[in-house]
Amino acid sequence: MEVEVLFQEHKYKLGKRVDRGFAYLMVLQWVLAILLAVFVSPLTWSGDSSSIHMHVWMAIFLGGIFTSLPVYYAIFNPGQKIGRYVIAIAQMGFSTLFIHLMGGRIEAHFHIFGSLAFLSAYREWRLLILPSLLAIADHLIRGIYFPLSVYGVMSGVEWRWLEHAGWILFEDLFLGYMCVQATREMRQIAVTKSDLIKARINAEKLNAGRSHFFSVVSHEIRTPLNGIIGFTDFLQESPIPAEQRDYVNIIKQCSDTLLKVVNDLLDFHKLDSGRLELDPHAFKISDVQQYLENVFSLECQKKNLTFSMRVASEVPVELYGDSHRIRQVLTNIIGNAVKFTDEGSIQVSVSHYKGNLYRWDIADTGIGIKKDNLQKIFSPYTQEFSSTARKYGGSGLGLSISKTLVELMGGQLHVESTYGKGSVFFFTLPLK
Ligand code: ADP
């Protein structure tokens, strides 16, 4: 977005905010002016008749005029230049009214300095000119024709307006400088914001390009890979010599691993760019159990590990959630457990945690994880040791994907482990 547009937008919003602030201030000042007039000089006496003092009417009508226009602009047309000028004039009007109502007491003149300071909240030095000139002109004219109203004395005031003008200009100098500085900062903010917007647009474009690249490449890889896996399955079932069977088994293992890596990369990218959507539905816990037993029983048997899954009696037969993603998380974690366990068992259990939360535990008696590395393993492309990939393979994406998926489903994934003895990965999920 253009710097100038952002700058004007910022200025407009600021203007609106300050307009609103002045609307409240005006009403407050109006009430104060009336109270001042009422309490200081409510009645005027002549003989035995009394009437309401002119100050009371002045406070009501002049204060009303000063208040109504700014309030009108603040409500119906905020953030406009004309409104700002009306407010500036009205605010100075109030200053002169207060000085008059307080009989020209010197303390009342502080209101002028307050008004100029409030007006500088618009961060526009030009806005200070008109009210300052008004205040100076008011001192000059009232000083000549009605000095009691502005200085509280009748004589010896011919040149006092000059002294007052000097103080006003002195304050204007500082406020004006601050306004210029603040405007400069606002422009700098606009430049930074514009750069950020440009960077975000570029990143989005890049991301879209990357998404396209990922889906095309993963499709191009997965199609022939599925062909390889399918025909390897045929070969495994056909009568072939033992030596060749070993080769085929290795091809199968490698292609399965490759397919997992491609799938992980794609999922990670989808999660990273926030494009992965959940598909919650009712599912049977027994189906998940069946699936896991089908996938892992044989694998565990091959490694001489026992695999068991226990579902606590309080877990309902039917649950509600994205069973596809739950299976994915479980497959990742149990797959790791099998991979990193050479003897003993893998135990999965599901139990009620609290409210609508259910807890899944996957315990293994494998190599375990060092305490210092427990958090690190959830980062993408990270394994516990640099030697892990060499020895066990893997991309270091599985746990990062699992953690993000569990969190996306409203749960949390944790691990507890004793190095050399085994690990327990556990996560909670709202499933009702
Ligand atoms: P990958 O298994 O592909 O390397 P993961 O993100 O699934 O990637 O796991 C990251 C790392 O966490 C693994 O490389 C391993 O060092 C460690 N890890 C995960 N699960 C276990 C486990 N059950 N026992 C020991 N280490 C584990």
* Radius of gyration over C-alpha positions, nearest whole angstrom: 39 Å
Heteromolecules bound? adenosine-5'-diphosphate
Element-by-element helix/strand order: HEEHHHHHHHEHEEHEEHHEE
Sheet-strand content, in percent, reads: 5-15%
Cα distance spanning the termini: 45 Å
Number of discrete helical segments: 12
| Major sheet description | 5 strands, mixed
In what order do the strands lie side by side in the largest sheet?
4-6-7-9-8
Number of strands: 9
Number of domains: 3
Helix content: 55-70%
Low-confidence stretches: none
Overall pLDDT metric: 90
Shape: elongated
Structural summary, described in words:
There is one protein chain. This protein is of the alpha+beta class and 432 residues long. The protein has three domains: 3-199, no CATH class; 208-273; 281-430, Heat Shock Protein 90. Helix content is 63%, strand content 13%. It contains twelve helices and nine strands. It has helices spanning 3-40, 54-76, 81-101, 110-119, 129-145, 147-151, 160-237, 242-272, 285-302, 323-339, 388-392, 398-408; strands at residues 43-46, 49-52, 281-284, 305-311, 318-321, 344-354, 357-364, 412-418, 422-430. A five-stranded mixed sheet has the order 4-6-7-9-8. Helix 10 (323-339) runs antiparallel to helix 12 (398-408). The longest helix has 78 residues, at 160-237. The two termini are 45 Å apart. 28% of the residues are buried. The mean pLDDT is 90. Adenosine-5'-diphosphate (ADP) is lined by residues 332, 336-337, 340, 364, 366-367, 369, 377, 383-384, 388, 394-400, 423. Adenosine-5'-diphosphate is lined by residues 332, 336-337, 340, 364, 366-367, 369, 377, 383-384, 388, 394-400, 423.
